[in-house]
Amino acid sequence: MNVVDTSGWLEFFAGGNNARKFSTPIKQFDQLIVPTICIYEISKVILRESDENHLLPALAAIQKGKIVELTSSISTTAARISLKYKLPMADSIIYTTANQFDATIWTQDVDFKDLPNVNYIAKQH
Asked: Is residue 125 in some structural domain?
């Protein structure tokens, strides 16, 4: 199972230098877990930098994965993970969701860099 965090999705949608590296887990729909917090973050960035016309196809692509709602159990565990690894809220929710499904996180976010079960891909400029 795979979780592509927000940075990976945005790199993929923008066609950035690492887009191809994220396309593999993104296109494996049957193995793709999508935390709802990623949908929020992706939507916010796309709407801030573009418009609704760019958001709709992105949401269609995201919806091909298994959407995982934020539950009270995930929230509580994420709070513990946040304190343990000093992660921001969204990152701790993403990490907790991935752990719940024994998934690998694919990311460019340095906050995840040294955590177990993370495929960190350094951002290329």
From this structure: no
